[in-house]
Each structure stands twice: as C-alpha cells, then as structure tokens.
C-alpha cells in the first residue's frame, strides 16, 4: 500500500517522493483516529471552492479577464539591476491589451510556465530551476454505475437505487492502475448524486503515460475491468463515463 499513498499525495512513487511527505501522513494516521477520513467538497468545485473565491475577489473590486490568453510577460530592470514586471500582454482573437497589477502570480502547468517565462530569466537560478521540472501525466476517469460499487456487505443493497450506500471516503488500492478513487455520489452528493442512478466512481490514474495515447473507449474498458478485479468485490454494470487527461503535476529531476 505504500505506492498508492505516495501516488495520491504527490502523483509519484515511493522511490521518487520525499520521505517527509510519507512520514508526515503516516504519523498523522498513527496519532489521530479520524485522520484517515478525508472530507471532500459536497459538490462541484466551481460552486463550493473557486466560486466563493471568485465572489470574494469581485466583491472587493477585483476583476477576472476570462478567455484572455497571456502571451508575454513585460518586464524591465530597475536602477539596482533588479528585474520587475511591468505588465502582462494579453490577447483574445484579434483583441490585445496590457494588464497591470500590484503583484503577479503564475499558476500554470509545467509546459505552460516554461513557454510563458522570458528566456532571459533563465539567468536567474530561481527560474532556471523550473526547467528541471518534468510533467507527470494524470488521467481521471468517472464511471456511473447502476448500483453502489463500495457497498461490500450486501449484494441486494448494492443493487437498489432508492438511497446511496457505500464508503464515504477517499479510498486506496494496490491492485489497479488507479491508486486512489472515491464514489462522488457519496462524498460530494450535492452535485453528483442522481436519483435513480448509482455510484459515480472517480478513479485517478497516475502515472498516466500508458493511457494518454489511448482512445476513451479503451481507457474505459481497462479501468472498468480493473474495478472488477480490484479489492471491490460486488460490481454493478456501469452506464456512462467521462475521461479527462492532463499533465498538471510535476516532479523535480536533478
């Protein structure tokens, strides 16, 4: 079970993850009886996480430049030779503008930040270290079932659709390519529970390299088969699916 926990924490295996991460989480498990119970957002992140943050910012006069792409970081050097940012060159279709701010924060994936940074900034060690990061592909698969996948005690109860049953938690498995998974219909019922439908199983495949080039149907076939052969023993049929492939985690390669 070591690798599944490492993958869930940092999307890399035990040979590459920092020992501090593993020591911290297992020390927490050992000292707090409720530590292994992970509470998730009760619904969509857009409603329960990013939405409230967006409202907080706009209520205080902030603005969001949606659908504008940042094409260039505009910068100069002060008299003391320190580099400072003058603004961001933005574009949308044929429209262009420069956005200025008191502070600038870049939240990008690994390929994105490498494209965005001015090449001359590689002279600074802080920014040059970014080019030692390597993206870790992650594939997220959601499967909707005609029953409750994590209801392990009673076959009849797992098939009924009158009420949600199963394990309300983030779960780990060493028996599949997905290191962690959860039934979103139980963990985040506000948006993901559907009357008359069963589990919405979300599986995180990492490293996702073997799956990135595959068509969605083949990804679903492999994941559904692994759900059936994993430690979950009572599996209803799945009825629909969603696949999201991204490269949004990074490891440092010295």
Question: How is this fold's topology laid out?
Answer:
Layout: H1 2-10, H2 19-31, H3 45-48, H4 50-59, E1 69-77, E2 83-92, E3 95-99, H5 110-116, H6 125-128, E4 133-145, H7 155-159, E5 171-172, E6 178-183, H8 184-187, H9 189-192, E7 200-205, H10 216-229, E8 238-252
Antiparallel strand pairs: 1-2, 2-3, 4-7, 4-8, 5-6, 6-7
Task: Characterise this structure.
This protein has 254 residues and is of the alpha+beta class. The protein folds into two domains: 64-133, no CATH class; 136-252, Polyamine Oxidase, Chain A, domain 2. Helices cover 29% and strands 26% of the residues. The chain is built from ten helices and eight strands. A hairpin with a 5-residue loop joins β1 and β2 (83-92). It is globular. Mean pLDDT is 84; it is low at 249-254.
Reported by name, the CATH topology of the largest domain is Polyamine Oxidase, Chain A, domain 2
Class from secondary-structure proportions: alpha+beta
Low-confidence stretches: 249-254
Question: What order do the strands of the largest sheet run in, or round the barrel if closed?
Answer: 5-6-7-4-8
Q: Please describe the biggest sheet, giving its number of strands, its sense, and whether it closes into a barrel.
A: 5 strands, antiparallel
Q: What is the CATH class designation of the largest domain? A: Alpha Beta
Give the rounded overall mean pLDDT.
84
Percentage of residues assigned to helices: 25-40%
Tell me the total number of β-strands. Answer: 8
State the helix count. Answer: 10
- Cα Rg: 22 Å
Distance between the termini: 27 Å
CATH architecture of the largest domain: Alpha-Beta Complex
SSE string, helices as H and strands as E: HHHHEEEHHEHEEHHEHE
Beta-strand share of residues: 25-35%
- Number of spatially distinct domains: 2
Principal-axis shape: globular
């Amino acid at each position: 079970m070591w690798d599944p926990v490492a993958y869930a924490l940092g999307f890399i295996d035990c040979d590459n993850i920092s020992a501090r991460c593993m020591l911290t989480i297992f020390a927490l498990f050992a000292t707090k009886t409720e530590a292994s119970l992970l509470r998730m957002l009760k619904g969509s992140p857009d409603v329960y996480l990013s939405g409230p943050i967006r409202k907080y910012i706009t209520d205080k006069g902030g603005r969001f430049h949606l659908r504008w792409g940042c094409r260039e970081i505009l910068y100069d050097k002060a008299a003391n030779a320190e580099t400072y940012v003058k603004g961001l060159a933005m574009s949308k279709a044929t429209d262009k503008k420069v956005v200025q701010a008191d502070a600038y924060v870049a939240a990008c994936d690994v390929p994105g930040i490498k494209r965005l940074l001015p090449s001359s900034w590689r002279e600074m060690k802080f920014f040059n270290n970014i080019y030692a990061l390597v993206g870790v592909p992650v594939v997220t698969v959601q499967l909707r079932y005609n029953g409750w996948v994590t209801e392990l005690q009673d076959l009849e109860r797992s098939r009924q659709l009158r009420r949600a049953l199963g394990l309300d938690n983030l779960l780990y498995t060493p028996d599949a390519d997905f290191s962690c998974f959860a039934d979103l219909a139980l963990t985040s019922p506000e948006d993901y529970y559907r009357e008359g439908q069963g589990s919405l199983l979300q599986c995180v495949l990492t490293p996702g390299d073997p799956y990135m080039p595959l068509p969605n149907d083949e990804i679903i076939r492999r994941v559904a088969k692994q759900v059936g052969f994993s430690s979950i023993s009572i599996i209803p049929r799945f009825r629909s699916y969603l696949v999201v492939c991204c490269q949004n985690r990074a490891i440092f390669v010295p």
